[in-house]
Amino acid sequence: MxxxxxxxxxLFTALLVFATQTAQAHPQSSAYLTxxxxxxxxxxxxxxxxxxxxxxxxxxxxxxxxxxxxxLLSRKEAICAYARSRLHIQGDGQMGTFRIxxxxxxxxxxxxxxxLRFDIQGIGQPRQIEMSYNAFFDIDPKHRxxxxxxxxxxTRLGVFSPMTPSQAFDFGVSAPQNxxxxxxxxxxxxxxxxxxxxxxxxxxxxxxxxxxxGGSWQPVSDRRSAFVNVLKVVTAFTVAHSITxxxxxxxxxxxxxxxxxxxxxxxxxxxxxxxxxxxFSEGGWLVAFGFGLLHGFGFANALRDLGLQHGQLALxxxxxxxxxxxxxLAIVAAxxxxxxxxxxxxxxxxxxxxxxxxxxxxxxxxxxxxRVLDFKWLPF
Length: 380
What we know:
380 residues; alpha+beta; elongated; 2 domains
């Protein structure tokens, strides 16, 4: 056991170091929209990731993998036209005109962004506004537009997605929006749409109804033991996910997105490989906790770059973390009864566990190669 670990971890460490130097990881697709009301009307700015714009309309003219300021300027009109066609704002039922005043570029925690500063003409100072957003949804259904709306010293939040492409706000309602429910749903979505998180969790759950004895897997004796094992794994993963998510959003810890995405893929490989060749004989919950610390960085950049105030940040973090837990429990609720009913069968021990783990390892290894070598093969 000790020898296996001593041989494995130098290789694993070297792989992650290589990933930090060469990976062009594909982090979660996010855009940041800020809208402000004032006595003169509505104005704002919109951060659009260059990687997303390149996929949507093409920016890299010489196809060398780098987008220069010159290439960006040459596509300015195309970018502005794309933005105007993907965001529509109405005030009191009157459609506003999207006028772009400045065209800039900025570096956020997960890469370079085109920044469009704009004002909305034709709607003055509306009592109600409605926004329709459909940027990048056709090329990436996991894209999210994160909205920050500032009005009379209050900040309201919204999340645009393919399921919720529109947002409406009534300025006559003085109570500030509670971001808890918005990001509770985003936490659930983050788990259900994050295939790497799901496969990591499944890799840990597959042996949850078994124990390793004498070099082979044996079914646990009773359902209570299996339930306790699974509960430990899920809770450990959630606690670790919450710790690093909170620390990263609060600015205490920061890791580059390319490292995070590659490390998450590597963690799935290790978790699945452990089911086939035991690296960690016991303590599945410790493995879940250790690698859960990595997974916590997966959504941190987006929340940090949204620039939330402290009160909203606490509610947002709590809502998102609770959503993650709910999303995981839903997966467990679907998986555990079936696994319990099959755990005594050799079919489960020799086929489902081994074949399932091998399949997870193959998929995760492909993700790792994609993120390290900068290519896209899998459609998810």
